[in-house]
Amino acid sequence: MLRYRMWLLLWVCGLGMVWQGCKKKAVVAGASKLFSRFSAYKAYPRQRTYWPTLGWKVKSPGEVGMNAGALKKAMSYAFARTGDEKDRKGIRTDGVVIIHKGYLVHEQYARKFNAKTSHLTWSASKSFVNALFGIAEHKGLLKRSDLASKYYKAMSSGVAGKVTVQHLLNMVSGLCWSEGYEASPLKSTVIKMLYTAGREDMARFAVQQGMCFLPATRWYYSSGTSNLLMGLLRNIVTPSKFEAFVWKELFDRIGMKDVTWERDGSGNFVGSSYLYAPPRQLAKFGYLYLNDGVWNGKRLFPKDWVSFSTTTPKADPKGIYGAQWWLNTGRPKQGVSRRFPDAPADTFLASGHWGQYIFVIPSRDLVIVRVGDDRDKSFDRNTFLKLVLASLNTKER
Known about the structure:
It is a single chain. The protein is of the alpha+beta class. It is built from eleven helices and 13 strands. Helix 2 runs antiparallel to helix 11 and helix 3 packs parallel to helix 7.
């Protein structure tokens, strides 16, 4: 289970890393320019003939209007392995699952993975944090507008006392953080959190970094923020009921099997990084969002939750992030192009280190899961999406 992390841990330790504190004084000035909130999301109420709680029903690409030859080209790209297990260069896809119109239309694996093999999702875990907060709000346990200090007392003083749950979900809380991994290991707060001083209580560690900006004035991607959110949620449902809440209200509800979610020393699930599941099961999670938070006729999230989750905050200048989900909206009025120009603007994704992706494309009734072990960024997501989308019926593209 730990083999995906051992390389990074040993590499960092091999540097003889000495932590250099980078805590800064809170900045009291606001951002120089804030944009409007923006979303490309639209709900598509669709009649489903079944729900995959017990498993996916399978159809051939042709049965759902897809071109098998074009899909084969997409898979040739995804599984074109170059390099070997020693140098770890090139495209290194471990598995792909494609769901179209509610059916499993393609499934393929490599490197000894199969339909039942759990895969580390890395930061795709963050989108599961979003789901749990959506469920909690729908149950009336919290409001996204609530102050974070209501559920985590260590945030009660100073600028931190102004941070809301929504600020944390949108990654605009203003907490000090350094998300660098291999690029800046000596200054990386995330490495310290995951592997050294922060391991015993990652939520507490995140709070201890202090505030660098006023809430809602600066967007910054932070794994510490996701773990802090899990600390809040644990207090909301109480530690003794936390595990039951996660499994009963999410995984069991949608039939996600073979899920492992590691905890830190305090017993808190590591929302930033350490959820493992097979691609087929990850596709169920994407399918929940494809259906606007409804599963088997029952709403799990508030009616506006998926829309909220796929709306970029004012402080995000590039239009690339929502609430623990990555977006493809861009900022068209400001001339900022979409990250994946050949994919629809409403595409959103859970994304993890070294090539873990759950793509959700509501306008195309499509969920694509791709897991891998990329090390040199050879795998191009836009190219992959373009090739998969080319297999759809012309009217659906």
